Amino acid sequence: MRLASAIASRGIARRKGRERRMASRDAAPLLGGIEAGGTKFVLAVGPSPREIVSRTVIPTTTPDRTLAEVTHWFAEHGPVVALGIASFGPVELDRASPNWGYITDTPKPGWAQTDIAGPLAKALACPVGFDTDVNGAALAEATYGAGGTSLAYITVGTGIGVGLVTGGRTVHGAGHPEMGHIFPRRDREDFDFPGHCPFHGDCMEGLASGPAILARWGAMLSDLPPGHPAHTYVAGYLAQLCHTAFATVAVETIVLGGGVMQTPGLLDAVRERTFALGAEYLPGRSRQQIVAPKLGQESGISGALQLAARAFEGAND
Ligand code: ZN
Q1: Are strands 289-291 and 253-257 parallel, antiparallel or unpaired?
Q2: What does the alpha-carbon distance between residue 141 and residue 248 come to, in Å, rounded to a whole number?
Q3: From the CA of 159, how far away is ligand 1's center (Å)?
Q4: Cα(292) to centroid of ligand 1, in Å?
Q5: Angstrom distance (rounded) from CA 111 to CA 236
Q6: Which residues have CB under 8 Å from 138's CB, separation 6+?
Q7: Strand partners for 132
Q8: I want to staple 46 with a disulfide (CB 3.0 to 4.6 A). Which of 8, 52, 75, 280 is the partner?
Q9: Whole-angstrom Cα distance, residue 77 to residue 46?
Q10: What is the pLDDT of residues 56-111, one digit of tens each?
Q11: At what angle do helices 63-77 and 117-124 cross, to 10 degrees?
Q12: Widest CA span in the chain
């Protein structure tokens, strides 16, 4: 009898607990995230960075039209308690600057010196977290994907972007890291191409991005035959970039993604050459790894929602 009533009361307690959890789930405040790219904006809302309940994709047109669409969508799918924006750049990340939250000197027509965080903070009446697209992706991979408290997220595609997380925070300084524009040492056999970066010629992006490869060899890397010297050069330059991330920031993990990295065999070649370059010298060598993205295409929007969660908690970056 006592046992039966104990079981019954436990059942009631369990049911009540479940109802409470469901009620709190219904009432869970929503975070908003924007992965702002040069061709499209991905928008999402969810109670946590890994729990998206609605999402959409809109084309990047003019700032006025795009931001109006963004505001409208969040008004319909919110309200959100905080917004995170992981944006194409360059962007102003200094909270003390009057231009914080701006896309600054972008070559994208119509978008230079555009305030995107300010109008959205005002329209949605909530705190806003703002960072680069690659820093957002690095944060998401560090937290939910490849892992580690220090991580570099490198995307090799239409450009070469590098996001950095150390100590669980994204790296900012006087601006944000632009490691895609470091100068690698040229291969001994490779001196007849001036490079494709409009600012630096043969910087990393000018030698190993998709447009640089196309300008130089008239094809994408994945379409060039396996013995083509392009594979050796590109893997060698990217290995120098990875070595630089290990040697300067001492990251534990490098995530290598983007369109060019879809080339079969490239990730393995870069990994092998990076560790050959570093020799046995780097002190953290045994704890350093180079991997493919674990979150696939989700890292950008997940990172944006994480920026929203941080803004909600009152963290300033
Ligand atoms: Zn450059």
Answers
A1: parallel
A2: 20
A3: 9
A4: 24
A5: 34
A6: 151, 152, 153, 163, 164, 165, 170, 255, 303
A7: 87
A8: 52
A9: 10
A10: 999 999 999 999 999 999 999 989 999 999 999 899 999 999 999 999 998 889 99
A11: 30
A12: 91
Task: Find all residues with CB under 8 Å of 155, minimum gap 6, and list them.
Answer: 134, 137, 161, 162, 257, 258, 261
Gyration radius of the chain over CA positions: 23
User: What is the C-alpha end-to-end distance of the chain, expressed in Å?
Assistant: 59
Query: Which residues, in sequence order, are bridge partners of residue 115?
Result: 102
Tokens of 197: 């970066």
Burial profile 252-283: b = 16 or more Cβ within 10 angstroms, e = fewer: bbbbbbbebbebeebbebbbebbbebbeeebe
The sign of the dihedral angle between the CA atoms of 95, 125, 303, 160 is: negative
Cβ 42 vs Cβ 55: under 8 Å: yes
Q: Please give the distance, rounded to the nearest whole angstrom, from the Cα atom of residue 290 to the centre of ligand 1.
A: 23
- For residue 44, what pLDDT is reported? 98
**Distance from residue 98's CA to the centre of ligand 1 (Å):** 27
Q: Supply φ then ψ for residue 137, to 5 degrees.
A: -65, -40
Q: Give the distance (Å) from ligand 1 centre to CA of residue 182.
A: 7
**Cα dihedral 82→84→85→91 (10° resolution):** 90
87 with 103: CB under 8 angstroms?
yes
Amino acid at 118: G
Q: How far apart are CA 270 and CA 276, in angstroms?
A: 10
Pairing, β 160-166 against β 169-170: antiparallel
